[in-house]
Amino acid sequence: EQTTKRYIPGKRENLEGLSFLKASYLENSLEQAFERLSRSAQLGFAQGQVNLAQMYLNAQYVDKDLSQAMYWFKQAALQSDKAGVLKYVIVCRQVSYCQEGDFYQELTDAGVNIKVRALDFKLN
């Protein structure tokens, strides 16, 4: 029985980025993590997008930037990534310009199968 490993764009870069995040003993580990996770996110790897968003959210190597964090969480969410959906909503609730209902509508329009426990708003 032979298993086939298929290439997944961004997966390797994400794993490298996570390794650099943990390598605090390296002088430029956060810079290296940011570069790898940025590449992973740009290649469309959902976990890389979530991890990059976390760096923006936690101000790791970059200034805290909720807009960039939300952008990358949304990119992951649009690929049905559960962490992307949940974390986007958490950040969305912290900023005045974000409409949670619009986000769920955008996911639905994109064909993302989401399950929401309770809505405190109406979808149009």
Question: What does this molecule look like?
Answer:
- The protein has 124 residues and is an all-alpha fold.
- It has a single domain, classed as Serine Threonine Protein Phosphatase 5, Tetratricopeptide repeat, CATH 1.25.40.10.
- It has six helices and no strands.
- Helix 1 packs antiparallel against helix 2 and helix 3 runs antiparallel to helix 4.
- The chain is flat.
What is this structure's SSE topology?
Blueprint: H1 11-22, H2 29-42, H3 46-57, H4 66-77, H5 82-92, H6 100-109
Helix pairs in contact: 1-2, 2-3, 3-4, 4-5
Remind me, CATH topology? Serine Threonine Protein Phosphatase 5, Tetratricopeptide repeat
Categorize the overall geometry. flat
Number of strands: 0
End-to-end gap: 51 Å
Low-confidence region ranges = none
Number of helices: 6
In CATH terms, the superfamily is: Tetratricopeptide repeat domain
For the biggest sheet, the summary is:
none
Mean pLDDT over the full residue set: 91
Helix percentage range: 55-70%
What share of residues are in beta strands? under 5%
Whole-number radius of gyration?
Answer: 16 Å
CATH architecture: Alpha Horseshoe
Structural class label? mainly alpha
CATH class: Mainly Alpha
Count of the domains: 1
Along the chain, the helix and strand elements come as: HHHHHH
Brief sketch in words of this structure:
The chain is mainly alpha-helical and 124 residues long. 57% of the residues lie in helices and 0% in strands.
Highlighted features:
124 residues, 6 helices, Serine Threonine Protein Phosphatase 5, Tetratricopeptide repeat, mainly alpha, flat
